[in-house]
């Protein structure tokens, strides 16, 4: 067999669990600005739902004057927009918390991004005419089951405050990267909430309910809540906006490098504003240098790609860190805020390499 006959290795999802299916994106090997759907991370609480797209309807009811049922075709004929959005599981990087926390032990691959096309949720809601006492919009998914620590059987459901639900970039999406959303990522309709952790972007939408009171479903009031103390639930707060964060894609953690010049590269993202600065340290935080951010990546809701040329002529072991700062002056801390369920990890990213 000649060298040309050897099969070319391809990146693949990293399995965390199969039932339900939870798999990480191989983020270190993502070179493009959008993630092809076979490598888009998968996060599920339950088994995949069974539903037919041939007879699909989306009802909107609750604190509205004109309850309405939309057909999929009707939704697809409404004014649409396409938005590049990064979706990050709120448990991304959970395994790095110290002390350790229970839950799916995600590494740095519970994050992906691409181009979502859909109808602004506000267009659908405006057709139903909100009542004066409307407060929140609940989006219910078709996926359901039992979840550890929660009594009973529940559909996955989340609510948005009216202001966020009516934001022009909160959309009911039906396409991903110019194709129908793949079934495992929410086909035929998925809510996309830019800037918020991905638990808000409900998949397989079953119905939308406008409510005049605060929603207290288990995935709103028990799960996806920051509990800052180990032995009490005091000072709890809901998980909403993504923290500023970054990931080093190359070199890889534990890699052995030849002495010379090397490109350190990665991605950075935030739920508020835009990434303004990315700093790299090659001496475990003693000194920092600014990395270059790709010019066309500053706008929108996607991550930015960054790179830094490192001159590594001295042999030895090195700890490399990356730290992002956004336009709201939020920076990654050296250590993240610990919480019981391990949400929102955003400590400076860290890898170790050896130069020989």
Automatic annotation (TrEMBL):
GO biological process: sulfur compound metabolic process
Gene3D superfamilies in the cross-refs: 2.60.40.650, Oxidoreductase, molybdopterin-binding domain (3.90.420.10)
CDD domains given in the database record: SO_family_Moco_dimer
Named cofactor requirement(s): Mo-molybdopterin
Sequence ranges assigned to domain Moybdenum cofactor oxidoreductase dimerisation in this UniProt record: 240-344
Tagged with keyword Transmembrane helix: no
Statement: the UniProt record of this protein carries the keyword Metal-binding: yes
Residue intervals of the Oxidoreductase molybdopterin-binding domain: 45-218
Taxonomy, superkingdom: Bacteria
Matching Pfam families: Mo-co_dimer (PF03404), Oxidored_molyb (PF00174)
Protein name from the UniProt record: Sulfite oxidase
Keywords carried by this UniProt record: Metal-binding, Molybdenum, Oxidoreductase
GO molecular function terms noted in the UniProt entry: heme binding; molybdenum ion binding; molybdopterin cofactor binding; sulfite oxidase activity
